[in-house]
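quick one
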Amino acid sequence: MITRSPASLQRVIPATIEKGDSSWQAQLSGALRDPRVLLSRLKLDEALLPGAEAGHALFEVRVPAAYLARIRPGDPNDPLLRQILPLSAESDTVQGFVSDPLEEAEHTPHPGLIHKYAGRVLLIASPICAINCRYCFRRHFPYGENSPSRAQWNDALNYMRNDTSIQEAILSGGDPLASSDKRLSWLVKRLEEIPHLKRLRIHTRLPVVIPDRIDGTLLDWLGATRLQKVMVLHINHANEIDDAVIKACARLQSIGVTLLNQSVLLRGVNDSVEALAALSERLFEAGILPYYLHVLDPVSGAAHFDAPDDEAVILVEALRERLAGFLMPRLVREVPGEKSKSPLSLRSP
Ligand SMILES: *Cc1c(COP(=O)(O)O)cnc(C)c1O
Ligand code: SF4
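structure w/ iron/sulfur cluster:
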């Protein structure tokens, strides 16, 4: 038996613990936002700088430290790096790639509320994200017009109260968990008062990019709701899941949250059977079930991530031969005007 002397114990405890610096709020506001610093921190070729600056001018760089730490320095092809590093290709105009590919502007009865599908509404609960993903279909989203005040929330809540077909509220964004616990718990309390609402779903990347977001305060308000809780995470590569992410997921499961994942099929990130199989396996180790694998929405600035549909279908068919059925994500695309996400098959147009 090894007995630790008080002296050796002291050595493993840092001299000063500044709680403020490690809080999720500090990690969020301290996210890296300078392309030059990004390149030097990751020991990447300075030749990438002009392209990175140009992309940054279109959609700013934003990377929290916890995510940055999972990127291999010196590797320009790292699958996590590719998701956050702006490239000169973002400035290219590519036919078919537009600023509002989902035509969401047409389905917004109230600021911050999107009602496209039966039984569920999407609420824009935060205008910002903790990380800026280069392929994001919201990179041109008019967030300024869609971050509701409390008065506007009341209109959105009334809309939901008056439509008894709505059973599920989906908090989205931006990233809803970039919002404060105070605002979120206020909103969830209001949602709970709507008698026909059964489920609260949260679409978020925060437990992945800042695992400390899943702290006691969040578990308190989320654990207290009568609504059934589903969290749809957004993870594209197995390397995004480290021990801290697994712990955050375990905390969420401990209060009864069902964990699902959606990914985007991204060229140069996860467009291989090996990468997708490893992702599904790793997700399950973290207690997360694969839900959707989206083909890229044709948003301008992201065309270099596009994998052709026929390739996507072949890839997923090969994946099916490798994985247990419950580890298979559904390959879908979002078609404006459709009543649900649309499954892709070999015969899709
Ligand atoms: C994707 C989406 C949903 C959720 O769809 P599910 O198939 O239930 O995951 C709801 N509303 C909008 C506007 C969406 O884009
Ligand atoms: S909405 Fe999701 S994909 Fe888009 S930048 Fe935010 S976290 Fe990334």
